[in-house]
Amino acid sequence: QPDLAWFITVQHNKAPWRNMEPVNTALNELARTDSRLSIIKTTDLPHERLHFGTKGTLLLGETMAEAYLKKR
């Protein structure tokens, strides 16, 4: 599927993993060069200790669905 659209989330700024800023920067740069790639921002989603939790996960799903519908 050469024209398959991709929807990728960047890591939340409260994510416990190291070096997420360079990873997020690289993902954003890739999206600037490939129109099939959409970046889903997560910084405004509620975040618990390690993950989004129920509320954040539901909001992430809604955000991804909105991005998909805009791309169609």
Describe the 3D structure.
The mean pLDDT is 90. The chain is flat and about 40 Å long. Helix 1 links the parallel strand 1 and strand 2. By secondary structure, it is mainly alpha-helical. The relative contact order is 0.21. The longest helix is centred in the last third of the chain and has 19 residues, at 53-71. The protein has helices spanning 20-33, 53-71; strands at residues 6-9, 37-40. Strands 1-2 form a two-stranded parallel sheet. The chain is built from two helices and two strands, in the order E-H-E-H. It is 46% helix and 11% strand.
How do you describe this structure in short?
The chain has 72 residues and is mainly alpha-helical. It contains two helices and two strands; from the N terminus they run βαβα.
